[in-house]
Design brief:
Helix content: over 70%
Radius of gyration: 39 Å
Distance between the termini: 58 Å
Number of strands: 0
Mean pLDDT: 82
Length: about 160
C-alpha cells in the first residue's frame, strides 16, 4: 500500500505540473492573441491611413483601400498562426511520462490489492461453508504437539 501511496503522490505532482504548464501555455497564447489583436487594430489603422493616402493617386481610392486591407489582414493572420503554433515545453513531455509511469504503477498495485481481497474473500467463504476443513490444518499441528507432550509425560511417569 505504501507503493500505491507513493505512486499516487508522484501522479498527483506530475498532473499538477502538467496543468500548471498547460495554464501557462494558455495564458501565453491569450497574451499573444491580445497583442496580435492590438497590432492588428492600431497597426491596421495607421498603416491603412498611410498606405491609403500613398496609393490613392496611383490606384485610386478603391484599389488603395483593397491593397491596404490585404496587407493588414495578412499581418494579423501571421501573428495569430504564431500564437497557435506554440507547443508545450520539453519538460512537459518528461513530466507526462513520469505521470504515466505512476498511473501504471498505481493500476498494478490496485490489481494486486484486488487479487489479495479476492483470495481473502475466498478463504472467508470457505471458512463459512466448511469450517472444519478450513480450521483443520491450523489445529492439527498444535493437537499433535500437545498429544506428543502428553505421551512423553505419561511415559516419564510410568518409568518413575
Amino acid at each position: 500500500m505504501e507503493r500505491f501511496a507513493h505512486s499516487f503522490k508522484v501522479f498527483w505532482r506530475a498532473e499538477r505540473l502538467l496543468k500548471r504548464n498547460e495554464l501557462r501555455l494558455t495564458v501565453t497564447k491569450v497574451q499573444l492573441t491580445a497583442i496580435a489583436s492590438l497590432v492588428g487594430l492600431f497597426g491596421l489603422l495607421m498603416l491603412t491611413l498611410a498606405a491609403f493616402f500613398a496609393l490613392t493617386p496611383i490606384w485610386g481610392q478603391a484599389g488603395a483601400a483593397l491593397a491596404v486591407a490585404g496587407i493588414d489582414l495578412t499581418l494579423a493572420v501571421i501573428i495569430m498562426a504564431w500564437a497557435v503554433s506554440l507547443k508545450p515545453a520539453d519538460e512537459a513531455r518528461m513530466v507526462q511520462e513520469v505521470r504515466d509511469m505512476a498511473l501504471s504503477d498505481m493500476e498494478h498495485e490496485l490489481s494486486l490489492a484486488n487479487a489479495e481481497i479476492r483470495a481473502f474473500r475466498k478463504e472467508i467463504v470457505q471458512l463459512v461453508r466448511h469450517p472444519v476443513d478450513a480450521l483443520l490444518p491450523g489445529i492439527i499441528g498444535p493437537l499433535l504437539s500437545g498429544a506428543a507432550k502428553g505421551l512423553k509425560t505419561r511415559k516419564a511417569k510410568k518409568n518413575d
